[in-house]
Amino acid sequence: MDKNIVIVGAGPAGISAATELARYDLSSTVVDESPKVGGVIYRGPWRKTPDMPHLDEKLKESMNKLHQDYERHSSFIELKSQTRVLGPLGKDGLLINNNDQLSTLEFQHLILATGCQERSIPFPGWQLPGVMLLGGIQLQLKSGLVRPGHKVALVGTGPLLILVACQLHKSGCEVSGIYEAASFSSVAKETVALLNRPQQALGGLSMMWYLKKNNIPLHYGWGIVSAQGEKQLTEVTLAPYDENWHADTSKVKTLSVDTLGVGYGFSARSQLAQLMGLDMKYDHMGGAIPDVDQWQRSSVNHIHCVGDSVKLAGADAAIIEGKIAAKSIVKELGKADPLTIDKEVASLRKTLSRLYRFRQGFDNAGYRQAGLLNLPSEETVICRCEQVKRKAIDEALAQGCKDIVTLKMRTRVTMGDCQGKTCSHYCYDRLADEGHDYSANLVRPRFPLDPIPFAALENE
Fold it and tell me: Does the pTM of the predicted model rise above 0.85?
């Protein structure tokens, strides 16, 4: 196979990079594990539907625009859908799995647009059926076109809580309440940062008006304590949080619900970047992220990183980062005037800075506090793959574990099939809370990133 430009991820960042390359008559190969482009946010429903009344018009417009851009430039884009990247092969190749067929994909330039995943916050009952992360709820609403339940409560922090509440209500769910961990005063302090995107801020106000109009209560400074139920979630216990998000269990209240949406932030899906040997750094909000320059170029010259796998800043920022990475490659290949490219990227960077400042307002208000670490009981499972409970982590830390590798050897956290995607962030936060500098000693992902099924080996 001829070497080409390969993009991993068909979300806003990846498709933006591919369409920008196409404008300069440059072909690319886009690899994504989903059957459709757009990522979780812009993918849309799996099946055709005449309308999606539960989604706001702006979201539908953005979704349609991305798909139209892709279709307009599809002659320059080879889409390998339902394909998983298992890891690198040498310096310029990837091992991929499509329908249990293993093959190698070589590249001259690589753009990693692997996105993010939701951050799991363990608490008693967090594994019950009916307890879902907000992204899972959105996937059911936007792609599956199904309601996740009938009576729903939402807990966590950030604007996604409000958006999902509106979508759930429009879908016919009863939203019992939204419980935002941050205090109202901490959110109000970020008003100046939020004005970096006035239209977005107005959109947020319109959603707040929708909540009030439909009597959906929003409680600031409240959060989850536990979830209860036998085989299915039946009720949740909530409490007010102090400024460090410690729950005041003397003032708990209980709600009868069949679904709980949990959203305490996201973390970068940077495992492939780590396996590629890129320089990494630790970010409190995003976790392990690749270090990039103003062109989105990583420490390995022919590899660029874009989107939420680098900085959690939303779809609009991801789209701009994808364009910058594409223009970097265009400039390197001599497909356009370098000075023109420099001016265009400088303009894009100004817009990107404004988007970053807007997002920073939410990050400041919803900065994850140490009180969340006290939610699990001793018997609460932290690592679901290896069934490691909190008490095992407590004991290991008490016995002198000061980094994630030692904690891994003592308890088996991060050793399961998910390679720490679920449990590592709790462990990092616990280490930080103990006063240990864990940022230089991160969980090292293993090859392959996903298990290889026996059927794929039989086809070799």
Answer: yes
